[in-house]
Structures are given as structure tokens and as C-alpha cells.
Amino acid sequence: MNRFFRGVLTATLLLGYAMVEATHAEVRRPQILQVEATAYCTEGETASGEQTRRGIVAADPRVIPLGSRIRVDGLGRRHSRTYDVEDTGRLVKGREIDIFMADCDAAKEFGRQTARVRVLRAGDGERKAGT
């Protein structure tokens, strides 16, 4: 009888361990979203306290938190790259991103495009220290 309980206990522990490992595997899997991408050229301080620069995007913080690092694909060689989410925007809602471009003509020409976003590292949603 003692062997029976030991076997049940061992099976339960192994099953629990397998479930924990499966849960961790799901958490580590990068999140991929289909988004609408636009561009903006307004220079200044972002919502996170950074200055606008190449490589920054605005996103809805309820979807992609401030401080996140994302990979954007589907925008051609020039704009498919890694970006930092350092800004928000009153018109950026839901599954939308707004890419900062220093050239306003290029931002207008960019228009509205569908892209794939993979969250490489989720941010904490906080402003940078000292800002």
C-alpha cells in the first residue's frame, strides 16, 4: 500500500512540474500582433521622458507598455526593424503604432500600413528616472 501512495505522489509531482514548465514556455513565447502603422514627425519629449529620435514608436500602453522593445516586420527594408516604445498618442488606440520620423515629408508619405509586431521585451510602463 505504501508503494501505491509513493507512486501516486511521484506521478502528481511530475505532472505538476510538467504543467509549470508548459506555463513558463507560454510566457516566454514572443507575442505577435497585427497592427496598423503610421508615422509622426513632432519632435520633443516622449511620454516616457525621452527625446524623440529614430527608433522610437508610440503605442497604446494598454496593448504595448512604455519601455517595451518590439520588432516590426512587413514595412519593407527601410522601416522593418527593432523599435523602442517610448511614446503614446491621443490618436494611437488599440493595435496601432506610430513611428517617429525626423522628416515630416517621409512621415506623410509613409501613410497607413499593416505590420506585424513581435514584443521582444515588455516594458514596465513607467517614465524614465529623472524625467
UniProtKB/TrEMBL annotation:
Keywords: Signal. One of its GO terms (molecular function) is hydrolase activity, hydrolyzing O-glycosyl compounds. The keyword Amino-acid biosynthesis does not apply. Gene3D superfamilies: RlpA-like domain. GO terms for cellular component: outer membrane. It holds the Pfam family 3D. One of its GO terms (biological process) is peptidoglycan turnover. Residues 57-120 form the 3D domain. The keyword Ligase does not apply. This is Cell wall-binding protein YocH. The gene is yocH.
